[in-house]
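Sequence in, structure out.
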Amino acid sequence: MHNGDAPPAAHARRPRRRRRALLVIAAVLVAALALLAVEVARRTSAEQDDVRTDPAFYALPAPLPTGEPGSIIRLQPIASAPVGTKAWRVIYHSRDLADEDIAVSGVVIVPDTPAPDEGRAVVSWAHPTTGAAPRCAPSLGLDPFEYIEGMHELLAEGYAIAATDYPGLGVDGPSSYLLGIPESHSVLDVVRAARHIDAAEVSERVVLWGHSQGGQAALFAAERASVYAPELKLEGVAVAAPAANLNALMTDDIVNLSGVTIASFAIPAYEAAYADRYTSAEITGILTPAGLSATPDMAALCLLTQNEELHAIADPLVGGYVTSDPATTEPWQTLLQENSAGHSPITVPVFVGQGEADELVLPSATEGYVNLLCSQKADVTFRRYPGVTHGLAAYAALPDLLLWLPTLHGERPPADGCR
C-alpha cells in the first residue's frame, strides 16, 4: 500500500456516502418541487377567485363619496400574493388635472416579516405603458404583480411597494395617459393609501421608481411632492428609459409603429383633459382621416395582451397617421411640453438608467434630460447599458438601483452623472 492510499474499507465507504448524499439531494429537490407545486396551485386557485370578485370591487357608486387624497374607498386582501408577503388591492381618492376628486386603483405589497419600529420605507412603483382603457390596469391582471419590475428584490430589502394603476385604468374614468399631473398625483396618493393600511406598517419615507411612461409619472411626482404631499419624506427618484421629453418622444417615434400606438393612446386622453382649452377638432386636427377613424379602436386595446390586434390597425397607418410632427404642431407642441418633465428642479437624488439599444426612448433623449437635470444642479446618477432595449431597461438597471438605494441614507458620495 502506497503512502496516502486509503484502506480498502474506506474505498468501499466512499460510494455509499456518495449514494447517500445523492439521495439526500434528490429528496430535498423532490420536497422543493412539491412545495413549489403546492404554491403554484395555491396562487392559481387564489388568482381565479380574485378574477371572479374583480367586477364588484372596481364598480364604484355614483356619485363617488368625497375624500381626501390617499384616503381609502375600498380595500381587499389579495389571496394570491407570493409566499412570504401580504398584499391588498386598493381603491383610493386622488385628484385629476383640474384638481377634481377621482378614484384610482392599485396594489400594495409588503414582506411578511416584522416591520422596523419606524415602519417600512415604501417604493412607489410607476409602471410602463399597458394601455389607456380601464381593463388594461396591471391590478386587473391574473397576476396583479406581474409588471412591478424589481418587486422581489425590493421586498427582500425590506421595502413596501405601492403600485398605482393611474387614473382611468382599473376604475372607470377618463384616461390619464402621458398626463404628468394626474399620473403624479396617483403615484403619491397610493403611498398615502398604503399608510392607511394598518397591517402594511408603512412609514413616511418614500422612493419613487418608474419605467418609460412610469418614468414620466415618477419624475413629475418628484417635482411636485413637496407641495402636493408635504407629509411624505421623499428620499429619491429612480427611472429607467423615462418618457421625460414628450416632444422628443413624438418626433422620434411618430414615424413608426410605436409612435402610432403611443399617439393613439394619448389623443383621447388629451382631448378629454384639455376640453376647457381646446375643441375636439383642434386636438384631433393633426390626424389624417384614416388616423381619426382608427384612433378609438386602438385606444380601446391593451398593449402586450392585444399586440396582434394593435398591429393589424396600426401597421397600415405608419407614415400616414398624422399630417405633421406633433412636437412642432400646435396645440400639441405646447401640450407635450407642458407634460414633459423638468419644469421644476428635483431636490432629491435622481437615478437614471438607459439602454443604449433602446429604439423607443432614444438614448439621445434621455441624455438631453440628464443634461437638463445637471443644469438645474440636481444630484444625478446616470447609468448606460450597452445592448439593452427599451423593454429590459428597468431590469438592466436593478443591480445599480440596489446599490444606489442605501446611499440615500446619511452622507452621500459625490454624484457622478453630471461630469
